[in-house]
Automatic annotation (TrEMBL):
<keyword id="KW-0067">ATP-binding</keyword>
<dbReference type="InterPro" id="IPR027417">
    <property type="entry name" value="P-loop_NTPase"/>
</dbReference>
<dbReference type="InterPro" id="IPR013641">
    <property type="entry name" value="KTI12/PSTK"/>
</dbReference>
<keyword id="KW-0547">Nucleotide-binding</keyword>
<dbReference type="Pfam" id="PF08433">
    <property type="entry name" value="KTI12"/>
</dbReference>
<dbReference type="GO" id="GO:0005524">
    <property type="term" value="F:ATP binding"/>
</dbReference>
<protein>
    <recommendedName>
        <fullName>Protein KTI12 homolog</fullName>
    </recommendedName>
</protein>
<comment type="similarity">
    <text>Belongs to the KTI12 family.</text>
</comment>
């Protein structure tokens, strides 16, 4: 399913935008929409982002959940900070492996920088009481002025979404690697400001009317080969090396060296003496290539190796 990667500062409105995208796709098609985020992992954000190892574990869990759900039919929305460029590249490789399009939605909300540790957004089920909001703003101003660094004595009430503490926010902002549309893993990029309306149609076109990125060798599954293919490959190439090394003792330049297992049209053209170190190096290169491109018929290995040697030795 196409993947929508949402990124942005903490408390910038990422979850709200993810819910808006989910509602749009559910109302305008028969696509299933899945939101993958930290909320489904039942973790405390302040604890996670204060510990690099815990944060790494959470990122791994989110990526694994995306990998389980992704296919070519429905939509997956990854609702998280996604502030690391290398992590976004890993998601791009995952998309290439699944052969499905993706896009990046970057959320910019200036109000999150004013009160970084407070979402300033409220759960849609209810609105906060005026007194509670005033207390929280007072606490936010105290945090910014350095008067207090904790929220132990502040009651937020059930109306508020989870908050991110001031100290964690500063560190996350400093580590944030802004997306760049010139990078293929950040393209297509949609930048959304606080009061902007989501470009639903453009996002939909990017997901469903655009070709998926072509898979490359690193994201393709290796073809199946016989259980003893590597053993046969190792044995055949070693036998060819020994035949060539021994034949050099009685051959003169211009002779053809017959190789066991090779057909009549495949012979080693002896033009110069080759030491065993060079032969072993060529053998290792050939084995590495053949592992990535295995042949179903091991009877062709001798011919392939002879052809490879003739081209490499001249």
């Amino acid at each position: 399913m196409p993947l929508i990667v949402i990124c942005g500062y903490p408390c910038s409105g990422k979850t709200r935008r993810a819910e808006e995208l989910k509602a749009y796709f559910e109302q305008n098609g028969d696509k299933k929409v899945y939101i993958v985020g930290e909320g489904g992992l039942d973790v405390d954000r302040n604890t996670v982002y204060a510990d690099s190892q815990k944060e790494k574990d959470v990122r791994s869990s989110l990526k694994a959940e995306v990998e389980r759900k992704i296919n070519k039919d429905d939509v997956v929305i990854l609702d998280s900070l996604n502030y690391i460029k290398g992590y976004r590249y890993e998601l791009f490789c995952l998309v290439k492996h699944a052969q499905t399009p993706h896009c990046l939605v970057s959320i910019h909300d200036a109000s999150s920088l004013k009160y970084p540790h407070l979402s300033q957004k409220f759960c849609p089920s209810s609105a906060p009481a005026a007194g509670v909001l005033s207390d929280v703003r007072t606490w936010a101003e105290m945090l910014q002025s350095g008067t207090t660094r904790t929220c132990e004595h502040v009651s937020f009430g059930a109306q508020f979404c989870p908050v991110v503490l001031f100290c964690s926010f500063d560190a996350l902002v400093l580590r944030f690697e802004a997306p760049d549309s010139r990078n293929r893993w950040d393209s297509p990029l949609f930048t959304i400001l606080q009061d902007d309306t989501l470009p639903y149609e453009d996002i939909s076109d990017a997901l469903f009317k655009r070709k998926a990125p072509p898979p490359n060798q690193s994201t393709q599954s290796q073809p199946l080969s016989s259980a003893n293919f590597l053993y046969e490959l190792d044995k055949i190439t070693q036998d060819v090396l020994m035949v060539i090394f021994n034949a050099q003792k009685t051959s003169v330049p211009g002779d053809l060296i017959l190789v066991p297992g090779a057909t009549e049209n495949f012979h080693i053209q002896f033009n110069r003496s080759v030491n065993m170190a060079e032969l072993r190096k060529l053998r290792r290169q050939f084995i590495s290539y053949t592992k990535m491109h295995p042949t179903e018929n091991t009877g062709h290995v001798s011919n392939m190796f002879v052809q490879y040697l003739n081209k490499s030795l001249h």
